[in-house]
Amino acid sequence: MAPTPPIAPDIISLRDALRGLRYALRRGGETLSEIPVATLPEPAGRIAGAVLRQGGELAKGADQVVSNVAKRLLGSEAGPIPAMPEIISDSNSPERFAAACYTALKAALRQLNFGEALIVESAARLAYRRIAPTIGNLPEPVVAAELTVQLLDLHAIHGAEDAEALAVFAVLLWLQSDRADVEELASLEASVDLAKVLRDDVLSASAARDKERLGKLYAEFINHV
C-alpha cells in the first residue's frame, strides 16, 4: 500500500501563526512573562508559547527570524483589492474576502494609529463562510452588516481597542464602493475619515451587534466614499 501523502498546511493558518508570533514578540514588554501569548488565536498562541519557553536569547532574536520568514511565506499584498461584487462572484470567495480584509484593515488601522494590531486572516475567512449560504439573496449593506458582526464576534483584530470597530466599518463600507483602482488608497482613507465622523454611531451599533442599524449606516453613507 502506498504511503498516505502528507496533508498540505493551510496557508492562511500558517500566515496567522507567523503574524501572531511576530505580534507577540513585538508586544512583549520589558519581560517575556508580559508577552500576551494567551490572547492569541491558535495556532499562533501555541507556536509563540513554544518559542518563548526556549529562553531569553532565542526569544530576543526570534522577532527578526519571524520577520524574515514572513517576508518569504506571507506573499505579496500588491495589486488592487476587489470590491464586494467581485468577491461574491469568485469561486474562492472566503479566501478572497479574507485577503482583502487583511490588506485593507492593515491600512485602516495604520490610519487610526493602531498599525501594530494583529489581524487574523482566518477569522475573516470564517466570517464569510458563516454567512455564505445566504449571501446571494441579500443586498450589499445587509451583507456588510452581517460580516461586521461576524468579524467582531470572531475577534478578527487584536490590540486595537475602539479602533477595531471603526476599522471594520470603514473597510466594509469601502469594499462596497464603486472606485477606480487608481483611487483605491484615497477612497479607503476617505472611508476611515467617515468612520471617525460617525464614531459614536458606529461604536454603539457595533457594541450592540445591531445589524439593522449597521445596515442603515452602510446604505446611507456608501455614496460618500
Key features?
globular, single chain, 2 domains, two-stranded antiparallel ribbon, 2% strand, 225 residues
How would you characterize the overall build of this protein?
- The chain has two domains: 11-74, no CATH class; 84-222, no CATH class.
- The protein is mainly α and 225 residues long.
- The protein has a two-stranded antiparallel sheet with strand order 1-2.
- Mean pLDDT is 81; it is low at 29-35 and 55-59.
- Helices cover 62% and strands 2% of the residues.
- The chain is built from eleven helices and two strands; from the N terminus they run H-H-H-H-H-E-H-H-E-H-H-H-H.
- It is globular.
Q: What's the short version?
A:
Helices cover 62% and strands 2% of the residues. The protein is built from eleven helices and two strands. The protein has a two-stranded antiparallel ribbon.
Distance between the termini: 60 Å
Strands of the largest sheet, in order across it? Answer: 1-2
What share of residues are in beta strands? under 5%
Q: How many domains?
A: 2
* Portion of residues within helices: 55-70%
What is the average of the pLDDT values?
Answer: 81
Query: Which secondary-structure class do the elements indicate?
Result: mainly alpha
Order of helices and strands: HHHHHEHHEHHHH
Tally of DSSP helical segments: 11
Described by strand count, sense and barrel closure, the largest sheet is: 2 strands, antiparallel
Radius of gyration: 18 Å
Q: Work out the number of β strands.
A: 2
Shape: globular
Unreliable sequence segments: 29-35, 55-59
